[in-house]
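Look over this today:
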Amino acid sequence: MTPFDNIGVDISVVLGTTLVPIHQLLRMGRGAVIELDARESDDVKILANDIPVAHGQVVLRGDRIGITITEVLFRAPAHRPRETVRRM
């Protein structure tokens, strides 16, 4: 067992987005359909702790929905300031 085995990461998948006026949102009930700005063939965004980490495609496996990762996003390493060398 490693120290990383007990660390949890919140994974979210974003299918699409839309802008809905609050009055329309308040009138929605069970069965309401919210149209998104995405098509069935579009990639979804995969977030880890609200940070984009990958893109993927929705896959259906029996009665389950999954995501196949199509692209992993790499982040540039955090910039570290160089040590200042004083010359005399």
Summary: The first strand starts at residue 11 and ends at 14. The domain at 9-72 is CATH 2.30.330.10 (Surface presentation of antigens (SPOA)). The chain has one domain: 9-72. The two ends are 52 Å apart (CA to CA).
